[in-house]
Amino acid sequence: MKIKRYLVRDMQEAYLAIRRDLGRDAVIVATRKVRQPGLKGFFLPAHLEVTAAVETLLEAKPVTAGATAVGGAKMSAAGRIEAVAGSISGPGNGSWPGMADLQRELGEIKAAIARLQQPGADNNAPAAASWQESSLLEQELERELVQELLAGIETMDDRELISDIIRSRLADCLAGQVAAESRQRIKVFIGPTGVGKTTTLAKLAARYKLYQEQKVGLITLDTYRIGAVDQLRTYAEIMSLPLEVAMTPREFREGLERLADCDVILVDTAGRAPDNKAMLVETQGFLEAVPEREVYLVLSSSSHRRDLLRAVEKFRILDYNRLIFTKLDESTCPGVLVTVAQAAGVPITYISTGQNVPDDLELAEPYLLAQRIWEAVEKHGSGGRVA
To answer: Are 296 and 190 in contact (CB under 8 A)?
Structure first.
């Protein structure tokens, strides 16, 4: 077994490094947060230490999948195992400690493969396949994706191996559905009411100021909700950030001009009901005042799938290009993130896992999202929701 340890900023960086160094079969065996020693380390964000491992098979004479047997016929999987065993125990190889154990293990692998290749070998498969498929579907994943996740493993009864394979495949799928934020200076947060836009904005503001030492400015367009301005003003005062309040697109432009010296400007908007087109058009009027911006659609992962899918369609009028999912700690069906991101056609950038500012906010990372989904499969099953 090959084991390697990585010190990275986040799981996305670790995931890419592990795949590059150890391959797609590598498994993450341990993670922990570590800080730099001394006072400086107390204020700087913690790094992530990730340990990964991959199984290695000792082969005196490598045999590839395309190897051919005597007479030119391609070997079966069992035949290739037999060839490896023969290369170890063949003439002139002598004997070495542990060879007998290795030969026995190779024989067991060969026998297992032979059983799987025999008709009727999956007599015990229906029950195993049934819980896998139903649990994944109840996590609100699309049936086509579930079939891809289960392809070729329907006959397996080793739940730990099944878990590893599904998590790995799900992480591969998610790799194309997450993306880091761009360097766009103005970032706007939109979404339905009550999803946590303001709290999410405050978390990002704290990260930019405390961790990246950037000058941050805040603007709120939410003058409808009682206490909305006061909530953001409280955050601004705690972090000593400038705050502008805009009631019209003109005031919005003027506020942006007053924050011209800021490295990052975060814009909070009023929550909108997806079916209220007039209110969405009003928000669109504000956004047209800023041609260059990054727009985050903020959604609650504890919402029903049909409501989330309706939101991603109705909010397209505002040209969002990133997704943020909040309340992941309240959701029993995190698999809905995959379905919604596919429907939206834009990547997930952040997930929020609680109310603590700024801690409960994570960059979306394929392996960790896959891990959360599979944990929910095993813990919650259906989660009590039907789309």
So the answer is: yes
Query: pLDDT digits over 278-299, tens only?
Result: 999 999 999 998 888 999 999 9
Domain count along the chain: 2
User: Among 14, 37, 54, where does a domain finish?
Assistant: 54
Give domain status of residue 216, yes or no.
yes
Does residue 167 form part of some domain?
no
Task: Report the pLDDT averaged over residues 74-96.
Answer: 47
CB atoms within 10 A of CB 372: 18
Give the domain range for residue 40: 2-54
pLDDT tens digits for range 214-265: 999 999 998 776 667 888 888 888 889 999 999 999 999 999 999 999 999 9
Report which of residues 236 and 19 the model is more confident about.
236
Give the Cα-Cα-Cα angle 167, 172, 174 (nearest 5 degrees). Answer: 90
CA distances for 247 relative to 167, 195, 229, angstroms: 47, 22, 11
CB 96: neighbour CB atoms within 10 A? 9
CA separation for the pair 162, 373 (Å, rounded): 14
Decide if 263 is inside a domain.
yes
CATH code of 355's domain: 3.40.50.300
The answer to whether position 152 is within a domain reads no
305 pLDDT above the threshold of 60: yes
